[in-house]
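Priority: medium. Attachment 1 of 2:
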């Protein structure tokens, strides 16, 4: 029987256009974190985006099957 491990990665991004530099930095950090999990056997299972007036929150769920 195999076990499944779940991990969530939460990224908060600015929603305003005048914070472009901060947005790019945070997106790059998210990309790197997802890449690192992928290299360790995790697969992206779902992504949920919650949009607010000043922030956008991205919640990624990753899974890894272990036997």
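Attachment 2 of 2:
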């Amino acid at each position: 029987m195999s076990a499944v491990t779940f991990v969530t990665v939460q990224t908060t991004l600015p929603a305003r256009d005048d914070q472009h530099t901060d947005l790019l930095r945070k997106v790059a950090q998210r990309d790197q974190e997802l890449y690192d999990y992928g290299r360790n056997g995790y697969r992206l299972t779902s992504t949920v985006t919650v949009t607010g007036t000043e922030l956008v929150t991205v919640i990624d769920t990753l899974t890894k099957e272990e036997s």
